[in-house]
Structure to design on (198 residues):
């Protein structure tokens, strides 16, 4: 149960639904409310399928590349650390300026990929599939919970922005970044410890 909780928190932090809120709002604001929900659910389902595929073929990828667990853990910790730094020192306004807000309905890109099923979450799923290769069911549960939580947050964009305000949403993203820094550091240290014990 502890592994499910910790993995779920990790996946939620990497998916970063709060950080994606402003971008999703900007991309979907020109569509009607009902259509926005349909697009959002469709893109989230596509992202979920992609993440499941990486979860189940992740071990085969590592075997093909002949990578050791320690190396994957160390590199995964570094990647997550860089992601966390970006979350803490991100500039939302600059991000929004680069978002295409044409009326053309988005499909696959950029909502499903890379905002939800981006390189960071896919790399993490490969790492987890190697670490827990005999416990894939627990990983599927963790991924499903994290995905459902992210879907709920993104479907509640209007409620969150009205209730909390943009400044609070940005502050929450930075808090999530701080937590992710601690998790990434632990992953890095576990890899170093395992390397010296072999």
């Amino acid at each position: 149960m502890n592994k499910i909780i910790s993995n779920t928190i990790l996946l939620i932090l990497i998916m970063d639904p709060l950080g994606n809120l402003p971008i999703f709002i900007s991309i979907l604001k020109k569509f009607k409310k009902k259509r926005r929900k349909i697009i959002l659910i469709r893109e989230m389902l596509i992202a979920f399928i992609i993440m499941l595929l990486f979860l189940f073929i992740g071990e085969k990828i590592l075997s093909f590349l002949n990578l050791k667990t320690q190396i994957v853990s160390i590199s995964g910790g570094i990647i997550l650390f860089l992601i966390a730094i970006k979350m803490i020192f991100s500039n939302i306004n600059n991000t929004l300026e680069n978002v295409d807000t044409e009326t053309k309905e988005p499909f696959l890109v950029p909502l499903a990929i890379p905002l939800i099923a981006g390189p960071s979450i896919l790399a993490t799923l490969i790492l987890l599939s190697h670490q827990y290769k005999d416990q894939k069911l627990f990983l599927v549960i963790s991924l499903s919970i994290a995905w459902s939580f992210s879907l709920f947050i993104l479907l509640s964009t209007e409620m969150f922005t009205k209730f909390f305000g943009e400044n609070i949403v940005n502050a929450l993203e930075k808090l999530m970044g701080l937590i992710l820094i601690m998790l990434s550091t632990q992953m890095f240290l576990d890899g170093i410890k395992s390397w010296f014990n072999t």
Q: What stands out?
A: Confidence is low (pLDDT under 50) at residues 92-101. Residues 33-65 form the longest helix (33 residues). The CA atoms of residues 10 and 180 lie 7 Å apart.
